[in-house]
Specification:
The chain contains 10 helices and 10 strands. It has 291 residues and is α/β, with parallel strands linked by helices. It has a 6-stranded parallel beta sheet, sandwiched between helices. Helix 1 packs antiparallel against helix 8, helix 3 packs across helix 4 and helix 8 packs parallel to helix 10. The protein is globular, with a radius of gyration of 17 Å.
Length: 291
């Protein structure tokens, strides 16, 4: 049962904004992040008994998934599972092996990672919440575009449709993205058009109940797990060793950095040291506010 009002202090949420939505990627999208989004997302997820996390972004020119998305999905799914929620990770067949390897590296059971090839999974699994992270949402023309404005619909199964079905069924949804073309970023379409008018035709129109724009989608998930850690009273977010373990596992499955298109220990151009620094910073925020 959800408590009335937000259970995440405003000051705590503001620290999360500063840590993972400071426009370090120079895309401008994360400038739209507000502390209330963390509060609403954390409140909506804190008491769920069953959840699905949807991710996976295939890079056709590299013939592999990208490194942003899997790590965040796994850490958030692991946090929810640790708190007692039955949790699955859903992706597509092209990204499945990479997501499984990433999950195993961080201690999330790979048998709970599925290729979501049936929309009736919402009925069979019956989640209370579905979280989308770094998962493409269709544009106004019904196609899926990458950040280079290339139509990659042929490599992008329409898992964004789960969000529409969730809305009809009253299932709580959260969308986390960093480019404007992901599920949930439809919440900010007008604002993103002002920021990136050149990218207008590629923007996702798919909305979620709460959407969180971040510098890097993984960081958005890490921060959300930090918010949940505060509500739950114990740390369930990422550890520094998680980042290296997950990236090495992803590279072992030929995953690539979405910007460089190379299989390396980077995420959206940020090296492992930068990613580990974000994780350390989030832990410091949680520790600072511990009662």
């Amino acid at each position: 049962m959800k408590m009335d009002g937000y259970r995440l202090p405003s000051e705590f949420a503001e620290e999360l904004v500063k840590m993972v939505a400071a426009d370090r990627g120079k895309r401008g999208i994360s400038s739209l992040c507000r502390k209330v989004y963390w509060q609403k997302a954390a409140e909506g997820l804190a008491d769920v008994s069953r959840a699905a996390v949807v991710s996976g972004f295939f890079v056709p020119s590299a013939g592999a998934p990208e490194t942003d998305g899997p790590g965040g999905a796994v850490i958030l799914a692991r946090a929810l599972r640790k708190h007692g929620a039955e949790t699955e990770i859903w992706t597509d067949a092209l990204c499945l092996e990479a997501l499984k390897a990433c999950a195993s590296a961080a201690g999330f059971p790979e048998e709970k990672v599925f290729a979501a090839d049936r929309f009736d999974m919402l009925d069979s699994f019956a989640p209370d919440a579905v979280i989308f992270t770094e998962r493409l949402g269709r544009a106004a023309d019904g196609k899926f575009y990458n950040m280079r404005s290339e139509d990659i619909s042929a490599w992008t199964p329409s898992l964004d449709w789960f969000s529409v079905l969730c809305s009809r069924k009253g299932i709580f949804t959260v969308g986390i993205g960093d480019g404007g073309n992901e599920v949930g970023m439809g919440n900010f379409m007008s604002d993103i058009c002002d920021i990136r008018p050149d990218f207008r035709k590629c923007l996702s129109v798919i909305r979620t109940d709460v959407a969180i724009p971040a510098d890097v989608s993984n960081w958005g998930c890490y921060a959300l797990s930090t918010a949940l850690s505060h509500i739950w009273g114990y740390w369930c977010g990422p550890c520094r060793r998680d980042e290296r373990s997950m990236l090495e596992a992803l590279i072992g499955k030929n995953a690539v950095d979405g910007i460089s298109k190379r299989p390396e220990l980077t995420v959206d151009g940020f090296g492992i040291e930068a990613n580990e620094a974000v994780i350390a910073g989030l832990y410091e925020i949680w520790n600072k506010f511990r009662s």
